[in-house]
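Residues pack. Consider this:
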Amino acid sequence: MLIVVKVIPRSSKNELEQISRDVFKAKITVAPKKGKANAKIIELLSKYFDLPKSEIQIVSGLTSKQKRVLISD
């Protein structure tokens, strides 16, 4: 499954909200430096979908606020 994640870094809390069937909004507390934000997004998605982190891969937008994420199922 391919989804779009819109990221809001430096938020007051970490949370994931489903906007539509394949669009999510992720609020994360970390700053987008050295891949920490991407790692936090994968962690949030892993908990949301109850999958191991290895099943989730950011396929585009590594340095963007909008990311395309592939979730293996």
Summary: The beta strands are 2-8, 15-20, 23-27, 56-60, 66-71. The longest strand covers residues 2-8. The radius of gyration is 11 Å.
